[in-house]
Amino acid sequence: MTPRQQAWRPSTLSAKTKDTAMAASRDYFHCIDQELGRYHYQGGDSRYETQALLRRCEKKLEPIRPAFASEGVPEKITNRYMKRKRIQAARKVLQILQSIEAQHKAAMAVE
């Protein structure tokens, strides 16, 4: 094992770092929920709408990176964690926006 691999193990994160990561994640998903609450269907592609919505909340994840770096977590692991949070959010938002789009199209077909 290299010294860098020995410097960090998944079980060695401090409670403060875990709390920071959980709080940032919670804030991120809360921001997304708020943005979804304000969302009004305008006829755009739901994939682009999803990206625009996620971009508005992206800053909520920023506290995770320095917290992990202070614990010696490799950047590759940090990036993977951040990517996982973004993917979880994107799936949730895309599913909701596609549902809204389908409801809108169904309502237009009935009229």
Describe it for me?
The chain is mainly alpha-helical and 111 residues long. The chain has one domain. It is 76% helix and 0% strand. The protein has 5 helices and no strands. The termini are far apart.
Present the secondary structure layout:
Blueprint: H1 3-7, H2 15-38, H3 46-57, H4 64-70, H5 75-110
Helix pairs in contact: 2-3, 3-5, 4-5
Which labels suit this protein?
111 residues, 0% strand
User: What is the tally of helical segments?
Assistant: 5
Largest sheet properties: none
Shape: elongated
Provide the helix percentage: over 70%
Report mean pLDDT, rounded to a whole number. Answer: 88
* Helix-strand string: HHHHH
Radius of gyration: 18 Å
Number of E strands: 0
Strand proportion, as a percent range, falls in under 5%
Uncertain residue ranges: none
- Would you tell me the structural class of the helices and strands? mainly alpha
Structurally, how many domains make up the residues?
Answer: 1
N-C termini distance = 67 Å
